[in-house]
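Following up on my earlier thread - several people asked me to post the actual chain instead of describing it. Fair enough. Here it is, all 525 residues.
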Amino acid sequence: MDSPLAQRSFTLIGGLGLGLALTTTLTALSGLLLRLDALDVRVLFSDPYLSNVLFFTLWQALLSTIICLILAVPLARALQHSASPRLRRWLFSLSLVAFTLPTLVLVSGLISLLGQQSLLSGWLRSYLPQWSIYGLDGILIAHVYLNLPFAVRVLTLNLDQLPSPAQRLTRQMRLSLWQRLRWLEWPHLRSALSGVACLIFILCFNSFAIVLTLGGGPAATTLEVAIYQALKYHFDLNEALLLCWLQLLIVGTCLVWMNRLGKVQWLTRPVRVASDHHGGSGQRVGTLLLIVYGIFLLTPPLSLLLEVSQVKVTQALLVALGKALLNSAGIATTATALALILGWTLLLLPRAARQKAHPRGLGLLEWLSLHTLPFPAMVLCVGLYVVLIASGLYTAFSLPALIWINALLVTPFVVTQLKAPLYAYDDQYTRLIQNWRPGTVQRGWLEWRAIRGQLPALACLAALLILGDVAVFAIFGSPEWITLPWLIYQYAGSYRLQEAALASLVLLMISGLLVYRLEGGNRHA
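Reply from S.P.:
Thanks for posting it. Predicted structure:
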């Protein structure tokens, strides 16, 4: 075992990290409970506006999930059976870029492509007179764009795990496409589809930036947007807290169900290139599907280039972009560093319980390390906002709260990715450490060497998630230090589409570099 001082030091660090995380969530819950006696659940059913918000939130999430799953199965099969390894690798990476794309970059691209003044919008209105990018149609397109690539990646990885003997047997038996899907692939895909459906539903249910920009009014508003409007526009704390509790209940139920279905893998790369090619018309149809899929993913970002070509670059625009970029970089860098440190500290106590063979303590501590996962960003923000406003500390702590909440929200991803290498390190070096009894600094150095290979890719993932944040900034942001996504929202909201496209292109380039580094890290991990 470690020296007694090292044991106490690491136990203290682990307890401090867990205490900080729990204090934040408990403080947020206390804010949600602050006016619990004034909440009236019957308002949800008696107020037409709130009833419509709840119905629309559920309806758009359900529609988005169904569309994604219907499209994802044939695309994943086509990708898994692709005869071109290069096309397969390229689309697999492009799917990750699309899924991690900051939402306002996508929104800006869609407005450029399908907005009121675009050529495609005029063509669509000739067949669909009621067509508009603002409303349910635009929300569904944006949600499908963001979540379809995620479903395709997960299902392709799932199909790659099909046993080779079973695939050889299907070739020898000359099974048809339908028979192969029915007897070999569907049993393998069924469980993965359930987990993917739950996660996509949660992501669409918690959608904020897309609905805020493309919602088109009270008829197309989700719970998160309604919470933001109640808090910032009307300052109706009762309505905001009631909707927060409703959102937390629904999302928590979905997450519990999703955890029962098993873990969803989407960050890993394909374990092999599929060798079971069929050729003929089926292969050609699959290739055509993949080409259409690639065009679908590339078109909104490329439309930004056409919009940017018309922008008039002024000094004021460059200054605004520079300030927003620096603010985003500073917030993302600080929050990412905090998330990496917090993720490591949250695993110290579970690892100690694991080494001492305490299964009950291990399960509880592992759950506590991921306890922020059920909290939607808006719920956590509103709870802390209420507490800070009530105590008069909002102005002083708005920026630290913005950074800390962003770090806390991505910490579960950090914990999940660090868990395997740290557990492997414990299994491999426990006996050596027991004989050596290193000190605190020595053990810290050893653990750094054990996980440093995963840290660059993990930092890129955390920075990607934080860079695109809109929900946390909507509550704790300030006009004095706006971020790049919020600048895009302001430009798009005031119909300055060329400026929004330019800011979106800058954010897209940064995100593309981070995804490239993330994919490179996963490839060499």
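DSSP finds 23 helices and no strands in the chain. That should answer part of your original question.
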